[in-house]
Amino acid sequence: MATILVLNGPNLNLLGIREPEVYGAETLADIEALCAATAAEAGLGVRCLQSNHEGELIDAVHAARDTTVGAVVNAAAYTHTSVALHDALKSYPHPVVEVHLSNPHAREPFRHHSYISLVADAVIAGAGSCGYAHAIRLIADRTAATGDPDTDEPATTRK
Ligand code: DQA
Questions:
Q1: Residue 107 and residue 80 in contact, taking contact as beta carbons nearer than 8 Å
Q2: Choosing from 78, 92, 100, 132, which is the catalytic residue?
Q3: Residues in binding site
Q4: In terms of DSSP bridges, do strands 153-154 and 147-148 run parallel, antiparallel, or are they unpaired?
Q5: Which of 44, 79, 107, 121 is the most exposed place for a label (fewest CB within 10 A)?
Q6: pLDDT of res. 157
Q7: Where is this site: Transition state stabilizer (predicted)?
């Protein structure tokens, strides 16, 4: 079964507890379950990983190159700092959708720049957990349009 990588960055393990007025009441487990259910509707699977460590996120992108058909990425604070994650995603050969629970552009100025947006096919911000479901559907649609989900091999690759 073709698989979508769902990558969550630092502090997102605390969802539900951390600033619920900003990030919502749902836990990371809730969001990962939503991703799995949404992907299943399209006949796809998910591989979910959350890490507080930049290198682990980069390793996950590398490991997903040949085994996934797209990536949903909420890099959290690394969004605004990580050239290394930007570079890893730049050489990831499938669609990348950047997701944020909140709308960083309506927040502090240091959240206004994203290193991920430069290498993302789409950005969904401020839609809460629904943003993840939209991102999964977007990748599912692109996979259906460009490749065979049964083989994990898109007929055309983006980069
Ligand atoms: C976030 C926004 C980032 O600015 C912040 O550092 C996060 C979460 C979001 O989902 O809204 O940790 O990516």
A1: no
A2: 100
A3: 74, 80, 87, 101-102, 111
A4: antiparallel
A5: 107
A6: 41
A7: 18
Mutate to test the pocket of ligand 1, among 74, 78, 80, 129 (most ligand atoms within 8 A of CB): 74
**Active site annotation includes 100:** yes
Q: Residue 136 is inside which H or E element, if any?
A: helix 130-146
Residue 147 confidence (pLDDT) = 66
User: Atom 9 of ligand 1 has which residue's CA nearest to it?
Assistant: 100
**Domain boundary assignment for the chain:** 3-146
Q: Is 94 among the residues known to form the active site? A: no
Beta bridge partners of 50: 8
Per residue in 47-74, pLDDT (tens digit) is 999 999 999 999 999 999 999 999 999 9
Domain 3-146 matching CATH 3.30.450.30: the answer reads: no
Q: For residues 28 and 12, is the Cβ–Cβ distance under 8 A?
A: yes
What's residue 62's pLDDT? 98
